[in-house]
Amino acid sequence: MSRKKSNMQKNLITLMSLLLLAFILTACPGRATTTSEARVMTDREGHTITVPTQINTIVTLGPSNTEVLVALGFADKIIATDRFAAGVAGLGANVPRDFGFMDFDVEYIIDLMPDIIFVTGMTRVHGDDDPMAPISAVGITIIYKPTSVSLAAIMEDIRFIADVMGVKNTGETIISNMRTEINAIRQIAASITETRTVYFEISPAPWMVSFGRGTFLNEMIELVGATNIFADHDGWMGVSEEVLLELNPDVILTSVDFLVDPIAEIKERPGFNALAAVQNNAVFPIDTAASNRPTHNVIIALRQIAESVFPEYFK
Fold this sequence. Notes:
Blueprint: H1 3-27, E1 39-42, E2 48-51, E3 58-61, H2 63-71, E4 78-82, E5 97-99, H3 106-112, E6 116-120, H4 133-136, E7 141-145, H5 151-164, H6 168-189, E8 197-201, E9 209-211, H7 216-223, E10 227-228, E11 236-238, H8 241-247, E12 251-254, H9 262-267, H10 276-279, E13 283-285, H11 288-292, H12 298-309, H13 311-314
Parallel strand pairs: 3-4, 3-6, 4-5, 6-7, 8-10, 8-12, 12-13
Antiparallel strand pairs: 1-2, 9-11
C-alpha cells in the first residue's frame, strides 16, 4: 500500500470520527445548544421580560396558561402546575399539581429551577403586588398574564405565548381555527330576527353569581344573537332571586359542575317554576372549563351556547 493511500485512509477515518462525535454531542438527550441570544420582550401586563434562549422546563399557575401551552405542543416541558389544572387534557398524569394561584411554596418552585413560569393575573392579590418577586430574584423568568375579557384578547394571549415559545405558526393556526368557528356562528346569528334573553349562572344558590358587560362570556352571548339579562352591569356580580324572577330570562345556562344535577337544582328552587326558562324546559349545562378559561377552547362553549339558546338555527 502506498504512503499516499495510507494517509488518505487515515484522513477519512479522522473525518468520520469527528462527524460521529458531532452527532453524539447534538443528539444526546438533555444537552442544550445555543441558537440565539436571549430575547427581551414585553409581557401581557406590559412588563419587560427576558426570555431564555432555551426553554426546557416550565411551571404554570393558572389552567388557562397550561391549556394553551399543551395545545402549542409543550405538555412534556411542564414540570409543575396548580391544582386547578387537574382537568387539562393532554397534561401528563405525573405532573405535580401541588399549589394554588396564591398559596404556593416559593422555596419549592425555586428548587425546581424552571426556565420560565407563566403566571395568571389572579395571583396578584393586591393590584401591583408581586408575590413571585423572590423567585424572579434568583434569575427565573416570570411572565404575568392577566385574565382576558374578550375573544380578541384571548387570541392575543395565544399569540404571545406562542411567540415566547418560538412557535408563532402553531399559534396562528389555533387562532385561525377559532376565527373560523366564530365567523360561522356570527353568520348564522345574523339571520336570526328574534331576541332571547339569557341568564348564565357561574355559582348556584344561595350565592348566585353571573356577569355583565366587559367579559368574554357576555360577548359570546351577544355573538350568538341573544341578550344577557345583566348586560347593563359591569364584570362579575352577585345575583338575587328577586331580581332574577323580575327579569324572567327565556333561557338559563349554567357552568356549575360540582352539584349532582345542577339543572334539576335550578328548576326546583322555590318560585323558579314561574320563570319562562323553567316552564319551557330551557335550562342547559355549558362546559365548565371551556366557558370559564380564557383559551382557544372557548369556542366549544360558544357552540354550546348557540345550540342551547337557538337550537332551531344552530343544531
